[in-house]
Amino acid sequence: MKYSELVKMSAEELVKKEKDLREELGKITFQHKIRPLENTALIGLLRKDIARICTLRNQKSEQ
C-alpha cells in the first residue's frame, strides 16, 4: 500500500486497516510455518505496511 493512499484515510480507517493487516500477517506466518510459501516477500511487505500505518498514526496524533 502506498503512503499517499494512507494519508487520505481517516484515523478510524487506519486502525481498521492495521487490524486487518495484522490478522493477515498472522495467517500468512502460520501458513509459512506449516509449509513454505511461494512468495515469502509478502511477509515483509505486510510488516512494512503495518509500520507505515503506525508511523502515520503517530504523526497525526502529534499534530
Automatic annotation (TrEMBL):
Keywords: Ribonucleoprotein, Ribosomal protein
Pfam families: Ribosomal_L29
Ribonucleoprotein among keywords: yes
GO cellular component: ribonucleoprotein complex; ribosome
Record-linked InterPro entries: Ribosomal_uL29 (IPR001854), Ribosomal_uL29_CS (IPR018254), Ribosomal_uL29_sf (IPR036049)
GO BP annotation list: translation
Gene3D superfamilies the record matches: 1.10.287.310
GO molecular function: structural constituent of ribosome
Keyword presence, Protease: no
Protein family (similarity comment): Belongs to the universal ribosomal protein uL29 family.
NCBIfam families named among the record's database cross-references: L29
Database matches in HAMAP family: Ribosomal_uL29
Name this protein carries in UniProt: Large ribosomal subunit protein uL29
